C-alpha cells in the first residue's frame, strides 16, 4: 500500500465541516525552487519543477550525526530519504536516479521500492558514511522472497551503492514509526547491524558487502493480523559503552551484546504478549526503551536501564497510551521529553530522570508552509531526538514532517517550528487544471490543494481542515468552474460514524461546499461530472481491501440534484469490479462525456463497457469494449477518459493491453493504438499545433521500450516522442498524468510519495 500516516496511528479525528479561511497560497515566495532535466531521457528538452506542497507525509524517523553540526537525515515511509541542506534552509531528496551509482547503468539499479525507507544509519567515525534499509514488502512476506535491500553512501548521501543481499523489508507496513534498527559501530564505519521483521538480526564487517545472521537473537513471533515487528530496534552505546549493543525483539525482550555484536544474551526486562520494544535510545550510561502495545490495545510503557548496575525501572508518565516516544538530553540525561501516540493531550517532560513528569502544552508555528498547521496542535508519533551538538534543541519527525523546538525545559508550552521546505512527501491522488489555469491536486491524508501560485506553498487544504484522503477530481466538460473532489476517511474505516467525504466548487476551486447526504458508502474511488454541471455526478466507490467488493456491494452512486438525493444505478447487473482498493489512484473506471450532458461511461474489469445517457441512472452494455480484465494490470491501471475534442470519443488505458480509442462510445470495434505496448496513465493537453488534435501524454511503453517512460503524441497516437523516464530525477514511478488544457507542452505528473512535478517544454515558449 502507498498511503502514509495510516490507520492505527498518525491520524487526526478532526471533523470540522467549516470551510478553511485564509489565502489559498502562502505569502512568501519560495527561493531557489529547483528545476531539473531528466537523466533517463537526456535528449528530452523538458524541464521539471516540483509543485510545492511542503511536508504532509509521514516522517517515520530521523538521525543526527553526533560530531558533525547540521548533518540531519530523515526517513519516510513512501517518499524516500532527505538530508538537511548545509545552510539549514531546507531538505533535499537523497534518492534520485543520478545518485544510484553501481558498476553498471544507474537506471538499471534504481528500484521504486527504494523510496520506502525502513531505517537510516550514520557512522559516528566517518561523517560521510550512511546506510539505508529500503523495501516495500508486506511484513509477512515469506522468508527468502523479500526484495528489500541496503543502500550505502560514502559521500554523505550524494551517491549510493545498492548492496546485493535481499531481505523482507517493510518500510510502509504497520509499526514503522520506531527507532532505528540499522546501526553502525561508533568506532568502525564498516561494522553494521541490521534488524529485520522476519529474518532476525544480521551483522556485516565489510560495509555491507556480505552479511551473517546472528543466530542467538530470535526473529520474533508473528504480529497482530499477520503483521510482524521482529527485531524492532538496534541501539549502539558510546563512550564507555562503545562496545555494547542492544536489540529489541517483539515478544522476546531486549538482547544485549558487550563485544560489538559478536555474542548476545537476553536481558531480564519483561515484555508482555502483544508488546514490542519499539524504541531504544542510549545516553550517558542509560538505555531508554519504550514498550508499545501492538494493535492499539492496552497501555505502553517507558523504561530506563542503568547499564552499569543492570537495573530496569518503569518511568512511564501518568497517562495511558499504547505508544510512546522518548528522548534524553545528551548533556544531562535526567532531562527527558516523552510524547504519547498524539500530542492532543500534551507532551511530558522530566528533569529527574523520569521520577516525576510535568505535562506541557504544545504550540505549533510554520513560517514557510501555512497549511501544515491545519488540524490543530495534534502531532503524530514518529521519533523525538535531542540534537547531540545543540543540547537545548529537540527534533521531532512525525506524521506531517519535521519540527524543531528550543529551550523545551522552560515555560509551560513547547513551541514547535515546522521545517518543511524541500520535504515533498505527499501521495498523489489526482490533479485537474481549473479554468484560470491553477492546478488543483488531490493527495492522500490531506485532501489536496488549489495551487494558485506555483512559486508558493499552499495556504490551506482544499475543502476544510479535517484529516481525509483525496481520491479523485473531475470538472464539467462545458464549464471548468464546476469541480468535484471526493475523498475517504480510511483511517476510520471500521468506525460506524465514518463520514463520506466529497465536495463541490462552482468557482474553479476557490471555495468548496460539502456534498450533502453522504453515507459511509461514499468512500474514495472515482467520480465523473456531467458536461452540463456538477449537479449530476456518478460516483464509483472503493474499498479498504481488494477482495471486499465481493462481500460489500456498494454499487454505483448517482445524483442529479447536487447530492440532495443519491440513487444506486440500475442496469449494471452483477458488475461491481470497478474500483477495488482505495489506494489504487491510477484506476479511473468512470468518465463523463465532455460535450453531451448526462452521458457517462463505465468500464469494469470483466471486459465490459457500460453507457448511460440519462445522467447515470440507467446503463446499457455497449457492443464493444476495451480489453480490461481482472487477470491483467487493467484492474489497477485501467483508465477511461472522454476526449475534449468531440462527443462520443472515449479513450482507455488497459495496462499491458495498451491504449485504445472509440469514436462512437463502443458502437464499433475499438481502435488499438498500435505503437503503445503498455499504458498505465494518460491524459489530454492543449494541442501543440493550434489546428491540431489534443496532445496525448502517456506513462507506459511505446514500441516495446524496455523501460517505462513518459511519452507525448501530437497526432492521435500515430507517432510518439519520449519526454521523460525519471522526471525531476525521481525513479519511484508515476500514478497521475494530467495535461494542461491551456498551455501547450505543460504536463503535471503525480508520484506515489514525492508529490507532483511540473513538466514544461521550452520549445513551446519560443513559438
What does this protein structure show overall?
By secondary structure, this protein is mostly beta strands. The protein has 3 domains: 113 residues, no CATH class; 365 residues, YVTN repeat-like/Quinoprotein amine dehydrogenase (Methylamine Dehydrogenase, Chain H, 7 Propeller); 212 residues, YVTN repeat-like/Quinoprotein amine dehydrogenase (Methylamine Dehydrogenase, Chain H, 7 Propeller). 2% of the residues lie in helices and 35% in strands. The chain contains 3 helices and 55 strands. The chain has an 8-stranded mixed sheet with strand order 22-23-24-25-29-28-27-26, with no helix packed on it. It has a 4-stranded antiparallel sheet with strand order 1-55-54-53, with no helix packed on it. Strands 2-3-4-5 form a 4-stranded antiparallel sheet, with no helix packed on it. A hairpin with a 6-residue loop joins strand 50 and strand 51. The chain starts with 46 loop residues before the first strand and ends with a helix. The N terminus is likely disordered.
